[in-house]
Recover the amino acids of this structure.
């Protein structure tokens, strides 16, 4: 039995064709919703909404007022506050941490 893809996880695959035929296509599934800017496709409408609002061509960033951390996502800032500063804030409170554009 051979161990392919990641030897640290020790996933038993009997052939490399299994990896290319079965596993890799699962990560490349497109969807009916396509971004007009970057042509990336999404399976769910909520996913493309978040992509357009926060990721694709967006310069909106959320900044930490205690250090130099910045992120495009509120969730990342929320995790940062808890992990680095041990502060628990709701997502509504985090909307006030939008970076100023200079």
């Amino acid at each position: 039995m051979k161990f392919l893809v990641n030897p640290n996880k020790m996933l038993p695959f009997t052939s490399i064709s299994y990896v290319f035929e079965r596993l890799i296509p699962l990560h490349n599934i497109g969807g009916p919703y396509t971004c007009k800017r970057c042509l990336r496709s999404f399976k769910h409408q909520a996913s493309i909404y978040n992509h357009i609002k926060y990721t694709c061509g967006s310069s909106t960033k959320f900044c930490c007022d205690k250090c130099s951390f910045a992120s495009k996502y509120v969730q990342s800032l929320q995790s940062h506050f808890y992990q680095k500063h041990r502060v628990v804030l709701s997502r509504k409170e985090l909307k006030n941490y939008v970076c100023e554009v200079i």
